[in-house]
Each structure stands twice: as C-alpha cells, then as structure tokens.
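Q: I'm writing a short explainer about Putative aliphatic sulfonates-binding protein for a general audience and would like to include a description of its predicted shape. Could you first generate the structure from this sequence?
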Amino acid sequence: MLPMLLKHLSNRLMKIVSSFLQNYEAWRINTFALFFACGLMLTLVISACSTNNASNSTATPTGNQTATNQGVVVRIGYQKAATILSAMKAQQDLEKAFAASGASVTWAEFPSGPPMLEAMNAGSIDFGYTGESPPIFAQAAGNPLVYVAYDPWSPKAEAILVPKNSSIQSLADLKGKRVAVAKGSNTNYLLVKALEKGGVDYKDIKPAFLQPPDARAAFEGNNVDAWAIWDPYLAAAQAATGARTLTDATGLAPNRGYYLAAKSFVDKYPDALKTVLEQVKKRSDWAKNNPTEVAKFLSPELGIDAGVLEVAEKRRDYDVLPLTDEVISAQQQIADTFYKIKLIPKSVNISEIVWKG
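A: Of course. Here's the predicted structure. Afterward I'll give you a sentence or two in plain language.
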C-alpha cells in the first residue's frame, strides 16, 4: 500500500514540476520577446527623430544665418546730401531687412566724408558713403577701412564756382586767390586737377578748408574768391546767388562715390554687409528712376527747394557696382596725385583695401 502511495505522489510531483518548467520557459520566452520588441521600437523612434532633426537642419540653413546676425548692431554713417542713405534712413529699409534676423541699425549724421571716416577709424560706425578723396586720406592715416562698392555719380555733379561779378574768367586766374574747399573731399581733387589744367601750382592758391555750410557763408560774404563744391550744394548756390561755373569735373575728375566699411565689420559680419548692399542697390534703383520723387523727399531734409534738387538729381547717376580694375586704377591715380603734392603723408595702394566679396 505504502509503495503504491509513494509512487502515486512521485508521479504527481513530476507532473507539477514538468508543468512549472514548461510554463516558466514560455514565460521567459514571452518576457524576452516583449523586452526585445520594446527595445526595437525605442530604437526606431530615436532613429526617426534623429533623421527628422538632421533633415530640418539641412533644409533650413537660413536659421543658422539668422543666428549669425542675432544681436548685431549695424552702425551707419550718412550725410543728408547723400541721397541713398538718407532715403534708406527715412524709409527704414535696413530696419525692415534685418528685423527677422534680430540685428538692429543705428544712424549717425556727418557734414561730409572726412569726419565720417574719422568716426569709422574711431570704431563709431561700420558703413558709410563718400566721394572719391576721403577714403584716400583715411587710408594714408592708417584707417582700417575697405572699399565695398562704388557709385558712378557724375562729373557734372561737382564744380568750381565764382561770384557772378567776379573778375576771374579762367582757371589761370585762380593764382593767388582764396578758394573754399572741404579738405579731403571729392572736390579737393577737382581743385588740384583744375589748377593743373590752368597752369597754376597748388601752392600758389590760398585754400580755405571749410565744410559746405561755412563755405557757402564765406562765398556769399565775399570772404573767398571761389568755391569747389558738389551737388546738391552746388545747385543750391547756383540758384540762390547766380554764381558762375568756372569748370565742372568733365575731363578732370571721374567724381565717383564709394561705399566703405570698417574692416572689422567686413571680417566679422559679411552676411550683414551683403544685406546692407542689397538694400542700397534697391534704393539706388528707385532713385535712378524717380528724380522728381527724390527731390521732393530731400527738400525738407536739406531745406533746399525741390526744383533746385531736381536739377541736381537729373545731372547725376546712381548704381551700386563692384570695383573693377579700371575704377581701382583711377582711384590710385588720385592717391598718387595727392601724395605728389604732399596732401597725404605717404603713398597708398588702393587695391590692398578693396573687398573681394
């Protein structure tokens, strides 16, 4: 009896153990499968997210460009008489262009090119526009600036004036006379070339280095005998005083304008510089095709009659162009002339500071 009972219990125990082992193996396999499936799914999700992020990064490079201008302050120097930058300031062209990138714009007004480039040398502004002579004086003084584009302007847009009743009838008659001119300005070169044409040594005149407002007062008060000046001050003086034009720059000086930038700005923020030039080009194209509108805009800014300003606008040209070998060569000739007559202390190489961007 007992042996049979033990055999029955033994068989029963074996079945229980066998059942447990079978169930344990199934549980173990199922558990492994579950963890494997979860791991595979997590891997796929992570991979998909990584691919999506990489795709977005590649598809939106402008976001990176925007980040490069974030917090940048673009400081513009301008003259009221410099049509394009004055119009851009009034219309907030640059503020609108930089809004999405997070950059901001500030403006500083100057009476002429030389003090503007002095401010650039001092680190107060990043970008500006002048006639052909100021950057030469600035380079000779060690100013780290860069030519970034040029504007054709016009030789008709600058001249040497004499009072309508003056005894001066020719360029040779300027010998010994007192001539008002903004030192280092575009008309400084016109004066040099005009004297050369008239056979007069630069040392044989009495230059009165005056900014346009002071020069106008001196001219009207007969405190100077002649005045080398550019538009629109030229057109305004002709209309108000009946002054005679002794000569304009035709055949004497190209009278180009130059867009200039601080070298540090060019090196650190080339994308911001390109945005500035793009907006300058758009406003320049508008000015070229709308001289009457430009005159109406400038009139209250300058306190000059719109009709007078329209005369000035119609005898000049507009554009924003990269410097060519021809333009660089002409600018070098001006620099060499200034060095020859000791207006600048050392010779300079224009091509060394021309932007290649």
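A: For your explainer, you could say: Confidence is low (pLDDT under 50) at residues 1-10, 13-66.
Q: Perfect, that's easy to follow.
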